[in-house]
Amino acid sequence: MNADAGESPDGLDLPLLNRFFEEHVPGFRGELAAELMHGGRSNLTYKVTDGHTDWVLRRPPLGELTPSAHDMAREYRVVSALAGNAVPVARAVAFGDTALLGVPFSVVEYVEGTVIRTREQLHRLPDERIAGCAHALVDTLARLHAVDPGSVGLDGFGRAEGYLARQVRRWYDQWHRVRTQDLADLDALHAGLDEMCPPESGVSIVHGDFRIDNAILAPDDPTDVRAVVDWEMATLGDPLADLGLHLAYADPAFAPVLGSTAASTSDRLPASAELAHRYGLVSGRALDGLGFYIALGYFKAAVIAEGIHARFRLGLTRGLGFETVGRAPAPLAAAGLRALAGKT
Prior knowledge:
- By secondary structure, this protein is α+β, with helices and mostly antiparallel strands.
- It has two domains: 4-109, 2-Layer Sandwich (Phosphorylase Kinase, domain 1); 119-340, Alpha-Beta Complex (Aminoglycoside 3'-phosphotransferase, Chain: A, domain 2), CATH 3.90.1200.10.
- It contains eleven helices and ten strands.
- The chain has helices spanning 14-24, 72-82, 98-101, 119-122, 127-146, 163-178, 184-196, 239-248, 272-283, 290-313, 329-340; strands at 4-5, 33-38, 44-49, 54-59, 92-96, 105-109, 204-206, 215-218, 221-228, 235-237.
- A six-stranded antiparallel beta sheet has the order 1-2-3-4-6-5, with helices on both faces.
């Protein structure tokens, strides 16, 4: 869809944003136009332009049900901190509090590139390019986990001690906020994670939602990661939790969350065991007890899916493909139980 000057898409007020840009965005040269790039599953993401420069604006979903999962200030802080580091991010431009739009929002530079969201997009690539892309993503994740939080001003970004136990508790609390169904497997998975929760394997900046469609790739080279995006769940925590979720996203059970064709679930991507091995080699981290972390990833993915489904049922999503999301939580929870039992 084309951006139309003066016409505000759902969730934005362009006259108010024009005033904000005049005061806070260097180089702003005129009236804004905006278009929704994608939204309703995670934060709403818009491309905004004054006809000379393009930016990306992000705000929480409409009708927020899981506020801690869409922390705009957290996202803006980590993107600002990582600028110029080994992890590619979009340059932070400006942050707006709730006074303007009723919700916090961030503005970052627009990074030209390709986002691979669907299996169809991924399968246009030859096998060696697909493998190279998957390896580049894992290498990027390892580089993120190698960043010393204190060296980029993020030493107080979160409480690493007790991170895993808090994740188990927090996502179960989120489940009770958003659930539209009773799932015995989800309750059993929570109980198992709670009982088997280990001490943290280490401390790093964690992205919290790392998968292929949260990366902007060079248009002519899918092995070149131009920017990692969607940092609203970033914090300090156990790096293996990032890896476990990344591997859980490869399960076909996750496909309904992104319109039944999520690129992360393609069987042409390298096997999870291969990616885990590569991560271990690049990061130098031991992968003991990885089954727990994968199970935690399934648990988190199931709750995220249920939250999206709940917003869809309330008419609060924007875009297509949401009618399939409600199919995902049950098989994701069942897969988490298998991972916890060491059967994956």
